[in-house]
Amino acid sequence: xSDSFKTLDELDLTGKRVLLRGDLNVPVADGKVTxxxxxxxxxxxxxxxxxxxxxxxxxxxxxxxxxKVDPEFxxxxxxxxxxxxxxxxxxxxxxxxxxxxxxxxxxxxxxEGCVLILENTRFHPGEExxxxxxxxxMASLGxxxxxxxxxAAHRAHASTEALARLLPAAxxxxxxxxxxxxxxxxxxxxxxxVAIVGGAKVSSKIDLLExxxxxxxxxxxxxxxxxxxxxxxxxxxxxxxxxxxxxxxARRIMEKADKANCAIILPIDAVVAWEFKAxxxxxxxxxxxIANDGMILDIGPSSVERINxxxxxxKTVIWNxxxxxxxxxxxxxxxxxxxxxxxxRTHDGxxxxxxGGGDTVSALAHxxxxxxxTYVSTAGGAFLEWMEGKPLPGVEALKK
Length: 400
What we know:
17% strand; Rossmann fold
């Protein structure tokens, strides 16, 4: 896939002002960053720039300031965390993005091999409008552009799309790793490919399911979504979460899968409870015998066995969404069991495994295997749109 986009080693970084689009949109509580994962992913690219005496000038959005300068959303508050993670001194340059002359002077005065963070790109309305004039002001501050924020690649914003077309541009090391992992997952995967798609609602994943049935050999559907498919087959789902108005959509997806020779794997048994709370009373039922007043909150052991058998036959697994209400015990049982099985098959060299999306990352972390898959994407929307087969503007702009 790197044949199609430029990589860091194709840019001359020596002594250059490098505009590095990162994702510093990290959670902050009481002025402290509570999860530095996105900062950690930037470290290899920052080190590469600094090693070549380039100036690493980081651009990022942070929160939703709605196109206005708002101190609550200033990136100054993440500088300390970036310094701690990179083990490098980090400077901050304030700008309202209307006049960048002072920012330009500060960059020129900064020493070679430094790390600088510019103010929140969303302090100007032109960022989310992909405004070319704003991108030109940004471009005036650098010699080359590197995008290392895959998580923002699905947005055509000034700092992700227009700016990439104004300077020599390349993917950073984290972006490159992400794109290569995704290519191995769905672009040119080793077959057979099994996709696991869970989560609450079919409505949020229709495009995803439609795209996957023509790309994978088997599609596992779990979570609340599976209830809609069971209902579409004429089965009773009691008081379970179920989008009954999408029964026709579910049937259409199943027909499309049938034509594409994609096996759809639905639950055959389910863990049912009468209230959604930790360690409440549960019963195991076959899906053809769900209690009218009960709720399906996890898939059962026979379903897990069936899914794990499909994983045993697979060379590639891509995963988006848990198969049960994993946040509350005991409804995490199936998700944890499948996650551990994917991790073991990966560790033993039988499987390329790619997971992504917010709930998926949390579920894999909960199962203790987040670092044991081939690749786990922390990008929510961008990962989903990539799985849906949609072009990502931030990636398209880096193509040769």
